[in-house]
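Below is how a single chain appears once it has passed through the pipeline. First comes the sequence as given, then the structure the pipeline wrote out for it. We keep one example in the README because the format questions we get most often are answered faster by looking than by reading.
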Amino acid sequence: MNLLWSAYRTAAPVLGAMAPAARWLTSPHERALWEERLGHVTVSGGVHAWLHAASMGEALAAGALLAELAPLQPGARFHLTATTRGGRARLRQLDPNSTLAPIDSPQAIARFLAGVRPERMFLLETELWFHWLMATRAAGVPVAVVSARLSSRSVPNYRRFGAPLKGLIGGLAAVLCQSELDAERWLALGAPPARTVVVGNLKNDALPQPADDRGRARARLALEPGRPLLVLGSVRPGEITVLARAWATLPERTRALWQVVAVPRHPRVSGELREEARRAGQPLVFGGEPRGGAWRWEDRLGVLAGYYQAADVAFVGGSLGRFGGHNPLEPAACGAAVVMGPDHASQLQAMRMLLAREAVWVAGPGAPLALAFETLLEHEQPRQERQRAALAVADAARGAARRAVARLSGWGLWPVA
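Resulting structure:
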């Protein structure tokens, strides 16, 4: 028997036994939801499917999948879970009865399955909790991974668990992957070849739509309707300095014409980033119309899509350092001309699609980024060409949920007989 697998199987029941007492070591917010972590969830009459979306990103995709599943099973009952509290909050916008998922201990998953009684389980992306898979298999609940992905680093880590894990993955009812590369990685872990296919990324189905009128979209955000807008989205530490330097190279008339809104990826580092802007000599305003080359600072959660809809040009953050980049299809779907730094390893599939249509400008710090801003902010034709290309790519990327449910239906996994 594989030693790592044996250690996990030994440790999980012990941790499960200790988990009730561990609530007092958690934060008050976590403590209030600890019963859900322990699997104390009951759904009268059971459900047709348990759908698990780990965090906020996967929770966004859950709505697209539900929208395709529900019409095929009139009156379908679902139970939605998330690993994070943020994901739970997002899922509760779809279903107010959504809960946190049980921890991966035999005690918690047994309580959860007894209380929820799902007939199917749909996992979004990469949630391989071993006791969940063992318990659902023992209960005869088919498990499908939808919008499945695996990083190159995950494969050798999972392989360390040896044949037992390979057997669990081989027993999955379906693995519906985001890309061909993801499919290769799942197959390398033992996924069933006849049931491992590429359907695309469910998150693309949740992409925002472009605004009917950018001017009105700007007015709704208390920006000047007639002035073009550059959005610096999902910026991370270290990027403000680079962006401020590129902005400063533009002619004064250009900086006076354009409005700029900077949106940090995480509000918790907003203070750090504001200080970075101060050191770079970049003025900030905290509401109203940014003038005189200042940027509006916007650190509220959930507002970035609205800014992208109002944007003519968007820089996608997390791409100038070692963060892997954030989703460039979000501004592309809104019809913005997209600029991204060279570090976009976590967005390779989206970048391949955008680059193939010349719908994204990849620019590193210094002169390359300054050139991208100069070209797109000062010249209408290249800006409009990239805007049209970006919209076309985003439109083509949608449809993963429809393709996934068609596969599930063809294999008899949905609707539930």
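The two ends are 38 Å apart (CA to CA).

See the next section for the split statistics.
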